[in-house]
Amino acid sequence: MSGEQLAFDREHLWHPYSSMTAPTRVYPVDSAAGVRLRLQRDGRPVEVVDAMSSWWAAQHGYAVPELDAAVRDQLGRMSHVMFGGLTHEPAVELGRRLVDLAPAGLDKVFLADSGSVSVEVAMKMAWQAHAASGLSRTKMFTVRGGYHGDTFSPMSVTDPDGGMHSMYGGLLIEHVFADKPPAPDEPLDTWIEETTRLFEQHADEIAAVIIEPLLQGAGGMHVYSPDAVRHLAALARRHGALVIFDEIATGFWRTGTRWAGDRCDVVPDILCVGKALTGGYLTLAAAITTADVAARVDASPAGAMMHGPTFMANPLACAVACANLDLLASYDVAATVGRIEADLTQGLAPAGELASVAGVRTIGAVGVLELREPVDVARVTEAALDRGVWVRPFRNLVYAMPPFICTRADIATITAAMIGAVEEVHG
Predict the structure, then answer these.
(1) pTM
(2) Which of 14, 60, 395, 396 is deepest in the core (most CB within 10 A)?
(3) Of 329, 351, 366, which residue sits at a domain end?
(4) SS3 of 106, please?
């Protein structure tokens, strides 16, 4: 990439969560293959391990032969066709695979553009389902520390104070937020009592409980107990509310099992999936629900699910998603993620000795260093690049969600770079 192109980028292109008037540094990527990005630093080409899986989506890395072939094959047929009044083989086959993968009973699939949109759809399903019974249940019940997307309904169930959307607070519907669940090694009794009391105060208003089971992602990489998930689901069902699991970040074995909810022995009424669905190739997501919820939605005054994205069920995205799910089915993903978890745990353990580190945690193919102060993002990023690794810290967290194809040597490189960068910059 030329200096002129970089200057245009700086002057005209708005990057995620960044200032347009005072943008942070960006690194040009020339190509990517396997787990490595080939980028430019100060005009020099360098190759680094991507510890982020491109925001947790590229779980098989880059230039994956099976996924490349699926895209090329579908391009020879059609790249897109509207889903209103039409259908096509890639959408049908993807639906079949998702129904097979989803927990028993979840067999109605709404294909959406992105994870945030799938959460929008799930919340609308819940509202419409209660409207069919003439109930005015407009509130969602959730927990602090969560993150569910950047569009308006998902923003409204993202942490209103500590989350990244607090500035929009006055514009959003006010939902009901319980405290963040305790970590797995902390007692639950007080939290359960307080959460139960809060839910019961609002029970007649609550349409659904919505949570990220076991692991809160962009809200703070907080790990919590399956018992907390079970309690929230039980509260919902006791009082006639639905259960929505946002597994956009946690699904497809990222936390060690096919779905994080599997470790909780809870089947939600609506399951939101995305990110890794297409292996990072194209944007696609889904809200998967039960026949009962679908019937209730159709019995609402609208008589149908009132949502229809222009690029719903895009054939290219559906085709590559099918190939990606086939690839996941071709090997023992749970064992692979278990090996990555063990290597992350071992590799990050020495960080506990650093004065700047408040905590170290891993779950599945996720490793987190929690600092005692906000991360100096620019300097930690640079220090990690010096050690051959791309990370994207936020708040007080330096974390990795590496591709599943990482070797033990790759994980060792990632963990050493994380620790080294934090020690260099924060001590």
Answers:
(1) 0.96
(2) 60
(3) 329
(4) strand
Active site residue 124: no
Could you say which of 262, 275, 343, 410 is catalytic? 275
Strand-pair category, 397-400 with 285-290: unpaired
Rounded to whole angstroms, how far apart are CA atoms 196 and 203?
10
Q: Which domain holds residue 356?
A: 3-63+331-426
Provide the 3-class DSSP secondary structure of residue 118: helix
Q: Are 57 and 121 in the same domain?
A: no
Residue type (1 letter), 238: R
- Looking up tokens 């002057």, which residue turns up? 11
Position 376, amino acid: D
The beta strands (E) that lie in 224-374 are given as: 242-246, 270-273, 285-290, 357-362, 367-371
Catalytic option among 50, 246, 262, 410: 246
181: tokens are 């669940």
386: domain CATH number is: 3.90.1150.10
For residue range 217-274, what is the model confidence (pLDDT) as tens digits?
998 999 999 999 999 999 999 999 999 999 999 999 999 999 999 999 999 999 999 9
